[in-house]
TrEMBL record:
Keyword annotations: Membrane, Transmembrane, Transmembrane helix
GO-annotated cellular components: Golgi membrane
Membrane topology qualifier: Multi-pass membrane protein
Location of this chain's protein in the cell: Membrane
GO biological process, one term: vesicle-mediated transport
Keyword Transmembrane helix: yes
Record field: transmembrane: 28-47, 53-73, 120-141, 147-166
Keyword Transmembrane helix recorded: yes
Family label: Belongs to the TVP23 family.
Name of the molecule in the record: Golgi apparatus membrane protein TVP23 homolog
Predominant location category: membrane
InterPro entries attached to this UniProt entry: TVP23-like
Length: 191
């Protein structure tokens, strides 16, 4: 069995001395771009109708920002900030295989990613798709059908990264439903 680095997904350790050692952001550029593209897409979506009347310009800008976010999170920030990566591989028979990896713990016991980076990563990864889902319901119930396609791109692209990284974190073989049930049970017992 290989050792994998444990990164905080839901709750962080309460030990203050441990937190102070790991609170330094080691990859500030990656942390910036992890949030920049996704927050920019949300801001453009919210302010688009106020700034311009061109739906096409807004749609293209939002989709470009979402695409840059998808690529940056999947290929750069996930590796640097939390040591996780995922990809799809097609074998010679044409079957698709999903691969989920976590960085091994270094031999010295020092961690490559910090607790602050892990918090930024997971906060951005979980919060932004939820915002796009809210936008989807808003567009659907306000009958803004032309915006529904743009919002669905946000849900799909950011949701795919969220799903891939959760599978990396919990392992590709584990059932996500049982993991959530176990987590909620532990929280209930802790109280």
């Amino acid at each position: 069995s290989e050792d994998i680095e444990d990164v905080s997904l839901f709750d962080a350790d309460d030990d203050l001395s441990r937190r102070s050692k790991k609170s330094k952001i080691r990859h500030p550029v990656a942390s910036f771009f992890h949030l920049f593209f996704r927050v920019s897409a949300i801001v453009v979506y919210l302010l688009c109708e106020l700034l311009t009347n061109s739906f096409i310009a807004c749609m293209v800008t939002i989709i470009l920002l979402l695409s840059c976010d998808f690529w940056a999170v999947k290929n750069v920030t996930g590796r640097l900030m939390v040591g996780l990566r995922w990809w799809n591989q097609v074998d010679d028979d044409g079957r698709s295989h999903w691969v989920f990896e976590a960085r091994k713990v270094p031999t010295q016991g020092s961690r490559i990613s910090s607790e602050a980076e892990a918090r930024i990563f997971w906060l951005g990864l979980i919060t932004c798709p939820m915002i796009w889902v809210i936008f989807a319901f808003s567009a659907l119930f306000s009958f803004k059908v032309k915006w529904l396609a743009v919002v669905m791109m946000g849900v799909v692209l950011q949701g795919a990264n969220l799903y891939g990284y959760i599978r990396c974190k919990v392992g590709s073989r584990k059932n996500l439903t049982s993991l959530a049930t176990n987590y909620l049970g532990k929280q209930f017992l802790r109280q």
